[in-house]
Write a structure and sequence with these properties.
340 residues, seven-stranded mixed barrel, Ku70, Chain: A, Domain 2, alpha+beta, two-stranded antiparallel ribbon, 22% strand, 9 helices, 35% helix
Length: 340
């Protein structure tokens, strides 16, 4: 286990639980080193004084708050602790709420909390209370130089502290073009919803996090191994020409896509849907008014365009037939002339 990030106590009412905080997650990203493409030497960064451009060591670096342009108040670690000693050493639970009341959008980073010296019994007391009530504790805690809102929850036998975002840290959706339920462009039928629900039901399974892994990282590492074996360690792959996707129609047949996703052929699925309907077939439609025909043509431009193209091809073929007959008629005449 990694070193503890923070030591303090959980407090609620008169209860005081000494705890130590540990990171609950670890990153497995690609650790890529920046290189100079001219000689492939690693590129480094220096901490330097912006006034004289000289390098500064960590021992000579302090923190400051810029209260006006170019003017700073220097703050040491002791200053930051002394600003509010009670807040910097405590996870202060302010309330208990139902876990489902906190939207997932608010959750940020998880940390494990382990009992400190002499804190086993009170730690277990809080853990079992959270487990049996189904509640989470909403608390505040100062980590480094920021006060976080946090949620304390029970995961197995461990109390987990999940930092939360403050409401003003979550952006509003006012500027996003989100379709409303009454929007005509986003209207969905009961049939589409039922088919989507059937697709979700067919893909539903028990949560098994072990089956998920970073396949992109594995593919990149496999490419690295392939380049090493081929001794292509210092060759730069140039970007190739990207194939442009074929232009697609604006008309999306959502039912057909859902049918394909469900593993059905559109024809069979449509036939099955017709068999399920108890209603008799609709009567033959009368000719639609011109206004309705215009609307239908606007709604299905791809179908109308295809029909027009078929008519043009038929007209061209029909025009060529008389010409072919004329050629055939000329041939006997030519033969008679040769015989004479």
């Amino acid at each position: 286990m990694a070193r503890s990030l923070w030591k303090g106590a959980i407090s609620f009412g008169l209860v005081h639980i000494p705890v130590e905080m540990y990171p609950a997650t670890t990153e497995h990203g690609l650790d890529l080193t920046m290189l100079d493409r001219r000689d492939f030497s690693p590129v480094g960064f220096k901490r330097y004084n912006k006034s004289n451009n000289k390098e500064v060591s960590w021992d000579d670096i302090v923190k400051g708050y810029e209260y006006s342009d170019g003017d700073y108040v220097v703050l040491s670690e002791e200053d930051l602790r002394a600003a509010n000693p009670e807040k910097t050493g405590a996870i202060d639970i302010m309330a208990f709420v139902d876990a489902e009341e906190v939207p997932l959008l608010y959750y940020e980073t998880p940390y494990y909390l382990a009992p400190g010296r002499g804190g086993d019994k009170v730690y277990a007391l809080l853990r079992e209370t959270l487990r049996k009530t189904g509640k989470i504790g909403i608390a505040t805690v100062v980590i480094r130089v920021k006060q976080h809102l946090a949620a304390l929850l029970c995961v197995g036998d461990t109390i987990v502290m999940q930092t939360l975002r403050y409401p003003d840290e979550i952006r509003a959706t006012d500027e996003l073009k989100i379709p409303s339920k009454s929007s005509k462009s986003a209207a969905v039928t009961d049939k589409e919803v039922n088919m989507a629900m059937a697709l979700v039901e067919g893909m539903s399974e028990e949560w098994n996090p072990e089956q998920y892994h970073d396949t992109y990282r594995e593919d990149v590492l496999a490419l690295v191994e392939k380049k090493v074996k081929a001794k292509q360690t210092k060759t730069i792959t140039q970007p190739g020409k990207e194939a442009r996707p074929a232009p697609s129609s604006n008309v999306v047949d959502l039912v057909a896509l859902l049918q394909q996703s469900l593993g059905k052929k559109p024809g069979k699925a449509a036939a099955a849907d017709e068999d399920e309907d108890d209603e008799p077939p609709p009567p033959k439609r009368a000719k639609k008014p011109a206004a309705e025909e215009d609307e239908e043509e606007a709604a299905t431009p791809a179908r109308k365009t295809a029909a027009k193209s078929t008519e043009k091809i038929a007209a061209v073929a029909k025009a060529k037939k008389p010409a072919a007959k004329a050629v055939a008629a000329k041939k006997p005449a030519a033969r008679r002339k040769a015989a004479a």
